Amino acid sequence: MIRSTADVVICGAGIAGIAAAYHLTVRRGLKNVILVDQYPPLSLTSDKSSECYRNWWPGPGNAMVSLMNRSIDILEELAHDSDNMFHLNRRGYLFATADPRRISDFTQIAAESSELGAGPVRFHTGPPGDAAYVPAPARGFARLPTGADLILDQALIRKHFPYLSERTVAVLHARRCGWFSAHQCGMYMLELARAHGATLLQARVESIEVAGGRVKAVRLGGNDGSSTISTPTFVNAAGPYIKQVGSMLGIDLPVFWELHSKVVFNDHLGVVPRDAPLIIWVDAQHLPWSEEEKTLLAGSQGTQWLLGEFPVGAHGRTEGGQDSTMVMLVWTYDTEPVEPVYPPRFDPRHPEIVLRGMSTMIPGLTAYFDRIPKCVVDGGYYTKTQENRPLIGPLPVEGAYIIGALSGYGLMASSAAGELLAAHITGGRLPPYALALRLERYHDPEYQKLLENWGQSGQL
């Protein structure tokens, strides 16, 4: 059996594990950090999301907004240093509604987010609101507005977002938001980490040796046989496997899983403009079926559910550069917890359901109803805590740490999450939001009271 040593062993080479390795080596100066994963880097969950980011988060408290603001700061630093090789933009998130009752919700949400640190709110209710609104450019992220623009002026909505339903009565444009290439960003950080001493091993963590209440070694298995790495520090960054890896330490982590997917198709009719922001419909809806289709669906118990009310949250964005015609659509209307199964299995009706749901917001998509375009469906499992906040910090076993339960926001949060974990490991200064993200929060009676009436989780 081969035996080696490491300062830190990180289980998982997804975006969380890579970010942790980057901060430990590049920014904290550790030279012997080993990343272990049985899969290629970033391939299990990290490249399955919509690849978006936002500092637009609800409370209680400002922990999530602060975490995201710091993470976006780091993303922008990386973009500057790499000549924006991972195509970071700040087009924003555009929340849209056809329900006048939602206007007060938009106002309240914007005020709360601003108070938590997302930036100022600008109201556009009519002239001269037009001149005060600054549209988001298709490229770039520097020197652009933060906060949000709440637009109630119908003429202004039609001018800048003519593709939205004419029933739209209000839009809320959250501004420090956008998207980037997950794979290119992750591989950029990985290469920097490797250049500063990190090593990537393709292997499987079989067990963790603990003696005297602290981590001593990690046993690996793989195609080349078994090996053991002596180390005082182990990081559980195993994504959807963090619960299994936690059990190797005798720890039952409070997480569950949801299956999320994205649908990508060729918008050859150019319905969605290439410079559009991420567009989100915040109204519940019934899918737009013809009368004949409704009759057919009602005739079978297996399809009657397609006539029921669907939840809020259908959203989408363009995919690729200005020359691309691809569009990505996302709508998680089924959020029942599931056990991860690989490869994930998706309902064959899912692309049509998502396309019809998005057409409520973007009526031009109805042009595809007669012949549903060929779609690529991909996705993975979001690993979540009850309140949809991550687990970052030390575990009850000395020398063991976790960076996980990053749900659907791992890409946007990983830069600050990796920085926070590195500070925990190296004894660095911790930011104010650190305590709110540790596992120990669940032992706090005051936090338990918060959980009983938590409210919004921040999940789109």
What characteristic shape results from the CA principal axes?
globular
Helix/strand-derived category reads: alpha/beta
Strand content: 15-25%
Strand order of the largest sheet: 6-7-8-5-16-19-20-15-21
Q: How many individual β-strands?
A: 23
* CATH second-level architecture of the largest domain: 2-Layer Sandwich
Please describe the topology of this protein.
Elements lengths: L1 E4 L2 E4 L3 H13 L5 E5 L14 E3 L8 H19 L11 E5 L4 H15 L4 E4 L4 H4 L15 E4 L2 H7 L9 E5 L2 E3 L2 H14 L2 E5 L1 E8 L2 E8 L5 E4 L3 E3 L5 H7 L7 E11 L11 E4 L3 E2 L4 H8 L10 E2 L4 E5 L6 E5 L19 H12 L13 E10 L6 E4 L5 E5 L5 H17 L18 H8 L8
Helix pairs in contact: 1-6, 1-10, 2-10
Describe this structure in words.
By secondary structure, the chain is an alpha/beta fold. It has two domains: 2-51 and 182-254 and 385-452, FAD/NAD(P)-binding domain; 93-175 and 257-382, D-Amino Acid Oxidase, subunit A, domain 2 (D-Amino Acid Oxidase, Chain A, domain 2, 2-Layer Sandwich), CATH 3.30.9. The chain contains eleven helices and 23 strands. It has helices at residues 15-27, 63-81, 102-116, 129-132, 154-160, 182-195, 242-248, 291-298, 350-361, 410-426, 445-452, and strands spanning 2-5, 8-11, 33-37, 52-54, 93-97, 121-124, 148-151, 170-174, 177-179, 198-202, 204-211, 214-221, 227-230, 234-236, 256-266, 278-281, 285-286, 309-310, 315-319, 326-330, 375-384, 391-394, 400-404. A nine-stranded mixed β-sheet has the order 6-7-8-5-16-19-20-15-21, sandwiched between helices. It has a six-stranded mixed β-sheet with strand order 10-3-2-14-23-22, sandwiched between helices. A four-stranded mixed β-sheet has the order 1-13-12-11, with no helix packed on it. The protein is globular and about 65 Å long. The N and C termini lie far apart (47 Å).
